[in-house]
């Protein structure tokens, strides 16, 4: 199975799957196809980059709408045992929004939240599934960075460290916005954790999709009906980022090695 603590899947819950497919095909360059899984009794689209699928898309469930959940991206973190991990998360003060359940032929998952409000999924592949490896850092179409706007940045970092084995790589002082804590898995940086700005309504994970150049990607976002909400801006290390919403309102980001 995938090593513990890696994000191994990303999922868009949206209000318009056809529009979502058209948008991300254009902006990120993904291929898309129906998952072909009648046993899950719902439409599910697979987004692919490079060697194979990296993300999925589904209609925002009615129960999620009832809880006030907007269209959004969610990440799946690999764990050895979903049931045990869900109990541990609840015991640490987190929430279990959807109890562990099976995805036929794929694995077992649960929808949870950390103790400071950010939702994510935990996932264990079916036995014998050994095929997953993290993509290269700048591989086009893959996720190049994972960013948590946390209810409490330092405490959230401690939770994910204890839960998934993430390690501190470095801290970046953002002045009035506080400390940006970069985390690593093994010897590679995978993302950052910060306390969310006061104007942000809820804690959330944000995912940065790799594109070749940021200005061209901004043009595609605008042409396809999305909105740029922050950037473009250069970040330490020389990459360029932009933060956006898609036409249905889901928040996402893009990262590129050049402007």
From TrEMBL:
Gene3D superfamilies assigned: 2,3-Dihydroxybiphenyl 1,2-Dioxygenase, domain 1 (3.10.180.10)
Alphabetized Pfam families for the sequence: Glyoxalase (PF00903)
InterPro entries (alphabetical): Anthracycline_SecMetBiosynth (IPR052164), Glyas_Bleomycin-R_OHBP_Dase (IPR029068), Glyas_Fos-R_dOase_dom (IPR004360), VOC_core (IPR037523)
Top-level taxon of the source organism: Bacteria
VOC domain: residues covered: 6-125, 142-257
Protein name: VOC family protein
């Amino acid at each position: 199975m995938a090593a513990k603590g890696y994000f191994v899947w990303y999922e868009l819950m949206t209000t318009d799957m056809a529009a979502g497919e058209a948008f991300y095909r254009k902006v990120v360059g993904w291929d898309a196809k129906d998952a072909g899984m009648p046993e899950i009794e719902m439409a599910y689209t697979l987004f692919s980059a490079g060697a194979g699928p990296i993300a999925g898309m589904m209609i925002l469930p009615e129960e999620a709408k009832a809880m006030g959940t907007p269209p959004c991206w969610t990440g799946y973190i690999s764990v050895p045992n979903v049931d045990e991990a869900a109990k541990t998360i609840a015991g640490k003060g987190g929430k279990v929004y959807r109890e562990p359940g099976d995805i036929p032929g794929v694995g077992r998952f649960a929808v949870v939240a950390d103790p400071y409000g950010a939702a994510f999924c935990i996932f264990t592949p079916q036995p014998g599934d050994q095929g997953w490896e993290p993509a290269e850092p700048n591989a086009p179409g893959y996720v190049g960075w994972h960013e948590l706007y946390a209810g409490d940045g330092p405490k959230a970092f401690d939770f994910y460290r204890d839960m998934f084995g993430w390690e501190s790589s470095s801290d970046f002082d953002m002045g009035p916005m506080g400390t940006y804590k970069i985390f690593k898995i093994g010897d590679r940086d995978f993302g950052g954790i910060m306390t969310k700005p006061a104007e942000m309504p809820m804690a959330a994970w944000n995912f940065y999709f790799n594109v070749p150049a940021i200005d061209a990607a901004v043009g595609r976002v605008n042409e396809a009906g999305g909105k740029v909400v922050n950037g473009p801006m250069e970040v330490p290390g020389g990459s360029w980022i932009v933060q956006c919403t898609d036409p249905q309102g889901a928040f996402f980001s893009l990262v590129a090695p050049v402007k």
